[in-house]
Amino acid sequence: MPSADLVITGKRVVTPDGVVPAAVAIAGGLITAVGDPGAAPDAARRLDAGDAVVLPGLVDVHVHVNEPGRTEWEGFETATRAAAAGGVTTIVDMPLNSVPVTTTVEALERKARAAAGRATVDYAFWGGVVPGSDRQLAPLAHAGVRGFKCFLVASGIDEFPPVSETDLRQAMTRLAELELPLLVHAELPGPIARAAASSAAGDPRRYASYLASRPRAAELEAIELMVGLCRETGCRIHIVHVSAADALDGLRAARRGTLPLTVETCPHYLTFGAEDIPDGATAWKCAPPIREGENRERLWSGLAEGTIDLVASDHSPAPPGLKCLETGDFLRAWGGVASLELALAATWTGARARGRDVRDLARWLAERPARLAGLPQKGRIAPGCDADVVVFDPDARLTVEPTRLRQRHPITPYAGMTLTGVVRQTFVRGTCVYDREVFPAGAIGKWVR
Ligand code: ZN
Questions:
Q1: Separation of CA 7 and ligand 1 centre (Å)
Q2: Is the pLDDT assigned to residue 199 strictly greater than 80?
Q3: Which residue of 177, 199, 256, 331 sits 20 to 30 Å from the alpha carbon of 417, by its own alpha carbon?
Q4: How far, in Å, is the centroid of ligand 1 from the Cα of 11?
Q5: Would you say residue 65 has pLDDT above 80?
Q6: Is the peptide bond before 288 cis (omega within 30 degrees of 0)?
Q7: Residue 346 Cα to ligand 1 middle (Å)
Q8: How far is the CA of 92 from the centre of ligand 1 (A)?
């Protein structure tokens, strides 16, 4: 093996080829070799992970940082510390809910300036597609966005309106030429309006009232529309945060036709069941909604069989006032669950209980998200990749105390839950950014383009 600045050894190193005893040699921020622990080179720094699992640093492709403009909701400093503590070494930031939204190069530059010198982990950006944004797509692509996000239904903020089928066709034709993916919030307004018209609104403090207001049909019809447009335009599409497992049949069929289509779900859809959400507990509100326990089990099957490619947090924080914690009004509360720091533990807790292993974690939370975002240097423990590595104790347990989380506001549906899997250390490009509750390196994160 070549000489190194740092060597991390472990009995369970998760590589693309399997979980093996190995030494990971790191020099100049890159992984230079992965080999037999007995043949590890000398290095100034050595870390023996022992029985802990050595995972590739996670890539979270669905994070709302909200800075600039709504930094009181969340900002780069707090979000990326939460990321580091949760084993996430790269975040890809959504084009909303910052002000301005990332639909122009100027807005992207403002965002990059806001992040510079404040991030503990690496970061990249998605651009936004809104009505009339067509001419901004190529300049944003050249400025380094990894792809684009759009909504088919109201996003919750006026500056980021939803797109029509006509807008989509135009944008997707452009994106197919640019060879970048379109990420889609797949709920259509029609079924939501029909649900509102066909039943009385119900008690706004009851979770069932909210669930009934965002029916599965909204997701199903949106996904059907997107699959058709994908076939027509050849644009790569990525369905973000699938909640309705009924959509899996259609997605499975579409994928058999080798369409350029990927699918994501989130830890909260894999963890909770609608039946268990207490009245007034608006920390659980997100869109699409968390559905019934039987639906959750089908999402796990979708992940296991590969119809769902990956898991992303959809970290979407808001201040306590907007979550309507005091009134518990589900219909007025801001929709969003902040779980950047807990995504790994929550996913692992559920995965392990269903017989999955740490190799699955690496696929769902690192390799495939890196591929989606076009970041070949991220998400794998392999020679030539960035030395983004996490030392993870898969047997340790943690009880979630909201005030100890590094995100800006201590609001989480995981409060009080005991999860399995604790991050011990997180390395970004060979630098230890998180070490058992301490952040020894400061804001070394960089924009990856
Ligand atoms: Zn989101």
A1: 37
A2: no
A3: 331
A4: 36
A5: yes
A6: yes
A7: 18
A8: 11
| 67, pLDDT greater than 90 | yes
Is pLDDT of 142 > 90? yes
Compare 360 and 449 and report the one with higher pLDDT: 360
**What residue ranges of the chain are covered by domains with CATH 3.20.20.140?**
57-372
Task: Say how many Å lie between the CA of residue 232 and the centre of ligand 1.
Answer: 26
Q: Ligand 1 mean position to 63 CA, how many Å?
A: 7
Residue 127 burial (CB count, 10 A): 29
Q: How many angstroms does the Cα of residue 86 sit away from the middle of ligand 1?
A: 18
Distance 64 CA to ligand 1 centre (A): 6
Q: Which CATH superfamily is domain 57-372 in?
A: Metal-dependent hydrolases (3.20.20.140)
Tell me what the mean pLDDT of segment 108-126 comes to.
Answer: 98
Banded pLDDT at 19 (limits 50, 70, 90): very high
Superfamily for the 4-54+386-407+414-435 domain = Urease, subunit C, domain 1 (2.30.40.10)
Distance 339 CA to ligand 1 centre (A): 12
For 405, how many CA atoms within 13 A lie in the half-sphere containing its CB? 26
How far, in Å, from the CA of 161 to the mean position of ligand 1? Answer: 14
- In tens, the pLDDT along 302-333 reads 999 999 999 999 999 999 999 999 999 999 99
- Summarised one tens digit per residue, pLDDT across range 246-296 is 999 999 999 888 899 999 999 999 999 999 999 999 999 999 999 999 999
Q: What is the mean pLDDT of the chain?
A: 96
Cα 128 to ligand 1 centroid, rounded to whole Å:
12
How far is the centre of ligand 1, averaged over its atoms, from the C-alpha of 449 (Å)? Answer: 21
- What does the pLDDT read at residue 93? 98
> Ligand 1 centre from 199 Cα, in Å?
28
Output the CA 315–ligand 1 centroid distance in Å: 7
Q: Which residues surround ligand 1, an ion (CB under 5 A)?
A: 314
pLDDT at 353 over 90: yes
Compute, in angstroms, the gap from residue 60 CA to the centroid of ligand 1.
12
